[in-house]
Specification:
18% strand; homooctamer; alpha/beta; 2 domains; five-stranded parallel sheet; four-stranded mixed sheet
């Protein structure tokens, strides 16, 4: 339940279109709701403008379904991240509006079309083909949080002319998300070209001394461009989320 | 030289108030300028809206003075970070407008008053007394990049009522910078209270398993609140810079 | 064989209800007992008030069954930790009183009801849904060591009002066990609210820079609240054990 | 201000021995008190039964003196940890009741004798001579939190008969603190001998693969004895604090 | 081909019992022998008194069989380490004298009985049941290098009386091998009891902060007992080998 | 398309053998080509003298086939690294000239015979049998980049006479690639024997404190021989590539 | 003594211009020479074309002087690296031809002018001003090994147009050395522009998550450009040496 | 007091040359002796054949003097390791027989000449000049534990002919100690040449990716030669001690 929905409900009470009892029943679970294995934070959409997102890894299909059931009573959008195909299939046949995005390992459930509330365009770049899963997770998160989103993939620094050929969308973006593995150099180069904030998301792509993304993470934290901030390895969701927070009016 | 200054110069050429030769001489070094030990990126203020900042650590007083001389020909504000008192004293007596902020190890040189260009307030929080040096570096950077800035220090999670007593400034800030060492828990708690982006800056405060700030850094990257992005350990300057980029109109 | 059982046996010898030979046979294995692949430390329950616990990981069902057989000759309670369902099924059908707790990967075998010997209540908190396995291991260990135990799950710091709504059980507990993964911030916040000891148990929940629980571990060791002590990653058993040692009369 | 002092004040108000205005003035700063560079948590002694302790490292003598001044208005005991001799000398000449314990790098300031409130004896063991500084910090903390404390130093596992000769105090202690560097083996051996909780504090004593105490820390977290919980490297204060929390009635 | 065999061959040439051509054919491959994927170092048994041992991990059954074929032409004993059951079954049916020791993952092939050439007894201790695989690898290596070997398992420091009950074999051994995982404390305690060299072999037994044996490794390198030297994690073979080198006349 | 092919095309345009339209169509994709999941850098063979190589790990057989299709329109040689047998089988049946080298996990596709353009011989050495996969990847890369290549395997430092018996090819090589795991000592010894550059490639062969090749990597970076440069762990391809760059006329 | 000098001496013996005894005296120390604390490897210049270089760190001025004395009897060039000013002053006043380069912490002693034997130009780039010390060490090493060397400093990726303005020297170099700290991204970008080998040398410039150069080192090892090989952190000497080996005719 | 001295004393009692009272006084402190800051383990020389050695680092000159006083009442030899010159000067003027070895940072105090009790020669090798301090510590320890010791310094693998020129002492040694920093390759090469045990001692010599000796340590633990065992970084004393234990009759 977001801020608009809450106000609407209270106005309905005020003008007699909703009984106090019904409103109370609705509001009872706003703070949070215990369903044995989870304490769902319904209050979050009021406080933060977007509901809790379900981290799918390590949860069973049944647990995810249970949490979705409860959240859908109050929310318009529900996202589930890090769900593999097998688990997703068990979930989406239960919800007619749920869509599984296999290239991002995400389930998206939308009840009503989401209005664009972001003030500019969020641009998602990836250094290589293998970084796309993470970049897509960022893309979908930002999109379903109400933003206009664009993406350009496989423009890493080993052939830097590929990057420069996209100068226009880069310079016009409101926030830029850059996903890169291996040496993680792309965010520094991109951030050196613009004045807007760059959210760098290291990926676990690489081998040997890439340490599952740590090298990219540390490189990004050491960026010689100062308009860079960093999220956890493979955390496309977090990158999309923080970019949306930045882009909100 | 920022975008406004450039346009003004070109207009002067257009209406005959500046000769082409003088304008050419002025513009010659816009791209960058070699002074033996440094290639100053004057173009940066055009491209990024704020000039290059001098990282003072590992540079001599003479080198810093030399770079400042060149930058001040074209820039209104020059910041030098990570300068200890002894080195600062050798520098500031050379520039009448330079001020040394000892609690942030920074030199600030401003020619004309800086207009507020940030659209909201940037709030800087610190978890402990020892985190203040880093928090102050963030504060001054954001301030001299044209923002309204507020700060609250020593409100760590061991006595969490201290934090909650500042609920109003926290909920009203446009961007929040949180500096914390040791277990680095404060950004998660703060970010859970608001919808705006939180820039977490880990500090090297602590001992033993704090690993000079690494534990705080990793904790912040793992924040269970999604509106958190992170900069390098003790990088108050970077936090202030990225917060300013976010806060710009 | 605990201290009470030993005294009883000796009294039986003293008053003629047990022959010296029988007593000798019983006592022969008190120090320890070799069964080829293990040297069972029967003396432990005398020395420490609770028998050796079987660490199930890396042992075959047959080995576990063999050790249980020997221990049950002398002990009232036998716990086996870290047993997956497949292995557990092979074991419990051999012992009519053995129960498998799948949510904690534990087998519990109790011969006679266990009296409550703990002086207060042990409270087990978990930060997230995924930390429950570890929290349940702590819960069952504390319970079968003779304590009154309570639990509250999924009350992490991203929605801190969930935690504060449980202020009463938190302030009334004799010892608090807090299981948390990711940034591991919950123990600091909880410990800041109470004067009693908090046993923090980091979990391997998370990804990227969570390093399989290391980040949570280090964060907990750096807690700015001083009434926190820490056990190994995912060591719910150890947390339950040390909490029981603290809570004993 | 601890719980007893608070009640006394309120009773004085109730029976007219204190005016409401005076009580209000006294109570005004109970929650916390801002002194520019610190937010002193006076409420802590009410909440936790012991006031905030000053971590001296990284604070100037002036800062420490300032914080002590404010705390002494409300507290009976003030401890300052990690103060070297030079800094301590500047501080203690300002407070007639302050004593500097050089072997523990601690300042202790006591207004009135501290009653013993701990229910048993806390025993502090050290593995080597070089671990004594940390052990002494634990000793003094526990003592000034109202406990009977005993200590035995230099009883490491290379000559284990030295340890066994102290079997009686070890078996009779209510809580045992064990400080050890290098391989950190002593807590496991000690904990194997008793049923009471053991607080292990790794020290940075050693070289090469001791990693400034990390090896001892990790060894202690992996203790094969289950009644062991661990605090940060060199954190004698934390060990003394958590042992006191355990030992409180 | 060891030193004795070489002398015998040369004596046969000297007294006419072997033709020069046959001897030349035999000796041709003494230096080393290329078999495409391996350069077998036959010279090693002359130089080092024991033939090259085959490290089975990462080699196919066919590769191992091929190398064994070549080695058995010249050697009396061939050992293969780190072979799982499935692979071993494919190998041993090819060699009538080969025996697979499943508890040590080793294949042993002996042509003629091995004389005892070690000057004393090598004792192999293990801290826990799970360390036995490594301890057995050490045991078999030492045995087939011509030593009298004894073993005692599961005598870790959490119940140290188990260790002291074996004081006699410990004090009488010529070399002691100690295998331990987790906190790796056993070698220090054992080495403190004797004057003979102790070879410590850390095992990967443990979880969380045991880091796959690293904690035990580092603890052993920091042993406060000075008669300890260390081999790689899980390297039972190396421990047996170096102990044999020490024990040789 | 390499530099020779480009000139030829332009000459054909010049002398009328190719129409401008056809040439334009051919050249259109020279800069790079978007195929949804990849931005193929065709310009690379002009710029660097060798086309982009396909890193097979983490790509599906379909993706690899798609990229090969596009590259083969313009290139004579296409290499795919890190392809297991199952995936390779799905790919090579689609291309009549593609060959799978299982011992190197590589697919090689050559349209016309490759002329030798390297100025000397590249020698590939491996320390052990298990390092061969990596050494073969280096061998094939160097070969298909137009070099004369030689290899010698299993000549590690434990039997250093094996190495010295190959003194001639070692001293005559133009560049030497040395693949080694475990302690990674071979490059230092080899580089001490010659004046030519040595490219050291650490392999992940080993266990325990070999850390998946990190120990070999660090050892090589610390080589006391100064003519050693290093590539990433298991990066046989990179070693072959950089050796080819060095060996080019 | 290099190869030419040796031949000259032998020819003098052959044609009677040198006595056998004198030649023998000269040649006696060719293999190596013991001077108590060092075994000087005079043979190295024959074997490797350049004499041993003295690593100055950790040696006293007297030790360095002693080794220089012995080397100068046989060598034309002697380099000493990592010598601070104070130590250098004590050394150079002893040798009239020794020059101290303070910006590289190196002493260079040349008897006769060094002929250019390198076949192309070696280009040394640095990412920042603080990387210059390392870059200069590479520069001087390459120069005194007989190469034409060029350098361009402070052209890091945050203002990438600075780099592109130097396209010509970059594309014309025979070997390129790139020194960079912080995120270490420059070698990847440079190597993507050329076909020649790039020697990347990470520097310890940076703070926090730069780990004294480790982040730059790992980034370079993960370069997405394949013509990059890496040397140890701050090892300008090694970079210059291996570049010289590559550039030799 | 070693075993011979004890027997002598008891025989004196038996034949009346010593009174029971005097013997009792002498024996009183055999188990251990408390001197406030240390528990001296006098029993050690009986149990281990060599007295406790004083680790000088972190102890004051006064503490060392105090411990020496007590030990010299019962022991013939006292060694103090890791003492810098300044501290040593304060100590040795107090003991007429104490000698300071500055190149090993050791004090040696001998009352009567030490008989050779080792059965063969211990050989100490060092890879470089900078490893000598550690090698000398090993040398002196082995010498004063009653062994014939030889040393050869600066014979690292970059010029391996230097090593091979010492083939005879290497092959004839009973135990070989090898000290090496940087890549730590020397022990593998030496151990490949002999059948006797090699004790490898890594040194902290190196920079960058040598990690203060960790790279050498890990390389040695991964030695492809199996007769290698390892001690802690810079632990020359431990190497000498364990070599003596091996060499004892």
């Amino acid at each position: 339940m977001n801020s608009d929905a809450l106000k609407k409900l209270l106005e309905q009470v005020a003008d007699g279109h909703a009984s106090v009892d019904d409103a109370a029943a609705t509001l009872k679970h706003i703070a949070f709701q215990d369903i044995d294995y989870a304490t769902i934070d319904h209050h979050r959409s009021l406080r933060k403008g977007f509901p809790e997102v379900i981290f799918g890894e390590g949860k069973t299909a049944d647990q995810i379904t249970g949490i979705m059931d409860k959240m859908l009573e109050q929310e318009n959008v529900v996202l589930v991240t890090r769900v593999d195909k097998e688990k997703a299939d068990k979930i989406i046949y239960r919800f007619s509006n749920a869509v599984y995005h296999e290239d991002a390992d995400m389930i998206v459930h939308v009840k009503e079309e989401i209005p664009i509330t972001g003030k500019g365009t969020i641009l998602v770049l990836s250094a290589g083909t293998s970084d796309i899963r993470v970049a897509k997770e960022a893309f979908l998160t930002a999109k379903y949080m109400g933003n206009t989103v664009q993406s350009i993939f496989d423009v890493g620094v080993a052939g830097i002319h590929r990057l420069f050929s996209h100068k226009d969308p880069i310079e016009n973006a409101s926030v830029i998300i850059v996903a890169a593995g291996m040496e993680g150099a792309l965010p520094s180069v991109v951030a050196g070209m613009v004045s807007r904030p760059v959210i760098a998301v290291p990926t676990s792509v690489g081998y040997g001394a890439s340490f599952g993304g740590l090298t990219a993470l540390f490189a990004m934290l050491n960026s010689c461009s100062s308009n860079v901030a960093v999220v956890n390895i493979d955390n496309g969701f977090g990158a999309g989320y923080v970019a949306s927070a930045i882009n909100r009016k």
